[in-house]
Design a protein that fits this description.
The complex is a heterodimer of chains A (140) and B (148).
Chain A: H1 3-25, H2 31-39, H3 47-66, H4 79-95, H5 100-107, H6 113-136
Chain B: H1 2-20, H2 25-31, H3 40-60, H4 81-97, H5 101-109, H6 113-140
Classes of the chains: A mainly alpha (140), B mainly alpha (148).
């Protein structure tokens, strides 16, 4: 299978997962929001979030056994860079109310103005970061 | 019913991310590289958006979700600095690591080294926001309830 077709099909599966969550239970498949909701537990809002996260982690376990090649690693980053990246991901997705799944898929497909602006913004700063780290600082 | 749906949706989401190449940070960084652009993840977005766009059309013709409960409220239209600033910071973390939150959870399950550092750091970032947000709220909106 060519990588484009595989990417398209993978995207369709992601869309199907988000669609079923929306149409069956009325929830948005925004991963950062679902995880953050577990840090501030509220009545009736914890079990489904925990199980969604468990499903994603279990999916990772299954993929590692069945198709380990999908976890092809990137060039190693110093641990401190990873810590900074993780904090930026966590803090930024909360301040901006969403990530690639919540804004980029659920929100953009709903033509939400906020999600379209957020998605354009994180793509822009993501591309700028790759440009600076790869071409100005010489990271792999 | 709803918890089972969430579990299966998370599982399917993980398989989709894996198949799409989102769990390969080099692929994600290639997608963000304007000099040597790898467009394959654009197809992932297109595939996901087509299916999800259809789901919103179906949602518009329904009163309630099939398993009960209610649909999410319409998103606010207001743009603000927090939305743009937060998205900008997230993008930097995404570009530095090649990971966003979904693929991070999947990679955690697979025991990927980088995810073992990134996931706890992400939770720290979320916690930090929660603390600062709580402080901001109590400054901007002083308690109006009279003390008991």
């Amino acid at each position: 299978m060519t990588s484009f077709l595989q990417s398209l099909l993978g995207g369709a599966l992601i869309g199907l997962a988000a669609s079923s969550l929306l149409l069956l239970s009325g929830r948005l498949a925004g991963v950062s929001g679902i995880v953050a909701g577990l840090l501030q537990p509220r009545q009736g809002e914890t079990l489904w979030r925990a199980l969604f996260v468990a499903g994603m982690v279990a999916g990772g376990v299954a993929l590692a056994l069945l198709r380990p090649a999908v976890f092809q690693p990137a060039a190693a980053r110093p641990p401190l860079v990873l810590v900074a990246a993780g904090v930026l991901i966590g803090f930024g997705t909360r301040l901006g109310s969403g990530c690639t799944s919540g804004h980029g898929i659920c929100g953009v497909s709903r033509l939400s103005r906020r999600s379209i602006v957020a998605t354009a913004t994180f793509m822009l700063t993501g591309a700028a970061t790759v440009f600076v780290s790869r071409y100005l600082l010489g990271a792999a | 019913m709803s918890p089972i749906i969430a579990l299966l949706s998370g599982l399917l989401f993980a398989f989709g991310l894996g198949l799409a190449g989102m769990t390969a940070p080099a692929r994600v960084i290639g997608f963000l590289d304007v000099q040597r652009w790898d467009p394959s993840l654009l197809f992932t977005m297109i595939g996901a958006l087509i299916v999800m766009f259809t789901a919103w059309r179906i949602r518009a013709r329904r009163e309630r979700p099939l398993a009960g409960g209610s649909f999410p409220a319409a998103p606010p239209a207001k743009l603000d600095g927090r939305l743009v600033g937060g998205a900008a910071l997230f993008g930097v973390g995404w570009g530095l690591s090649g990971f966003c939150p979904g693929p991070l959870l999947v990679s955690l399950g697979a025991g990927v080294d980088a995810a073992l550092i990134l996931v706890p750091s992400m939770l720290v970032g979320m916690g930090l926001h929660q603390v600062l947000e709580g402080r901001r709220r109590s400054e901007v909106l002083p308690a109006t309830e009279p003390p008991l």
